[in-house]
Amino acid sequence: MAGRTPDDPDPARAADVAAAMRALDRAAFLPPDQRPHAHEDRPLPLGHGSTSSQPSTVAAMLRLLAVPAGARVLDVGAGSGWTTALLARLVGPAGEVLGVELEPAVAAWGAGNVAAAGMPWARLRPADPHVLGGPRPGGWDRVLVSAAAEALPRALVDQLAPGGVLVVPVGRTMHRVVRRPDGGVDVTTHGSYVFVPLR
């Protein structure tokens, strides 16, 4: 559609992202010593080698994901649960959000943060170290990955429902992957970012 830029596929959903970020204070998803820095636009440490991505990066990724109300969304590398909760705001009560986090201590803390946000259609659990993502029958409508893959992770592409969207950093470049009904994919790239490695 004319007037849209590649990094903002849907201006109305961009407004939804901004509203979700205003509604969910990052401070509630940070360790106490980092909460004074919650409104700084930079990554912040969560412990155990995990970080909370900087707000501008999170907003850019959520705009690329273009999450509709009622969507089923997988959040890979969910950390403290902030992105899981933001996704839950976007999908609303008719949707479903699953956050997975590989570091058990961070996952347990993040699960508590998500529960405290009061959106029971979202949950966060420890990731299975032998399975990337979280396969579900019928696939996910959206998959968000907050860690950098060395190559496009086919396992996550395969977890997309037809028409689903995956947003993942590959190396230092953000990728947006749309799964076609025939199983093929369309891939576009959207700027340079630095993330912890996807494990």
Automatic annotation (TrEMBL):
Stretches for region Disordered: 28-54
One Pfam family in the UniProt entry: PCMT
Keywords: Cytoplasm, Methyltransferase, S-adenosyl-L-methionine, Transferase
Family: Belongs to the methyltransferase superfamily. L-isoaspartyl/D-aspartyl protein methyltransferase family.
Domain of life of the source: Bacteria
The protein's enzyme class: transferase
GO cellular component: a single term: cytoplasm
Alphabetical list of InterPro entries matching this protein: PCMT (IPR000682), SAM-dependent_MTases_sf (IPR029063)
Organism: Cellulomonas shaoxiangyii
The protein's name in its UniProt record: Protein-L-isoaspartate O-methyltransferase
Biased composition (Basic and acidic residues): 34-43
EC nos: 2.1.1.77
Transmembrane segments: none
Any one GO BP annotation for this protein: methylation
